[in-house]
Write a structure and sequence with these properties.
With about 110 residues, the chain is mainly β. Helix content is about 0%, strand content about 70%. Strands 1, 2, 3, 4, 5, 6 and 7 form a 7-stranded antiparallel sheet that branches.
Length: about 110
């Protein structure tokens, strides 16, 4: 299976609590997939045909930005829940699916 999921998030500072800020915002992206469906075996007679699928990624981000005055970067920890409807492309079986999930995010934000 091959999967590529570019996404973009716009983050807003919502609440400042001293050295910690609550940050959140929307996430949008595109899921591009090539491979068999999830019921396929990895090889042998149970291996099903591969196909292309794509769909939008819609979600949000909420996290904490830990400010470190006088340091080079801040630490940001958050979670990104998302939902992705997938549609088969040139697929004779017309596969359709829905992926719901979340990712845990940790990032360094370089401060001025």
């Amino acid at each position: 299976m091959l999967q590529f999921e570019p996404t973009a998030t716009v983050k807003f500072r919502m609440i400042s609590m001293g050295n910690v800020d609550l940050v959140g915002g929307p996430t949008l992206g595109l899921s591009l997939h090539y491979g068999p469906d999830y019921t396929s075996d990895s090889s042998g007679v149970g291996r099903k045909a591969s196909f292309f699928a794509l769909g939008p990624i819609v979600g949000g981000y909420v996290g904490l930005d830990v400010k470190r005055p006088g340091k080079t970067f801040n630490l940001q920890l958050g979670v990104t829940p998302y939902v992705t409807p997938l549609f088969g492309v040139n697929d004779p079986q017309r596969h359709r699916g829905l992926v719901a999930g979340a990712s845990l995010d940790a990032s360094f934000r370089f401060a001025r």
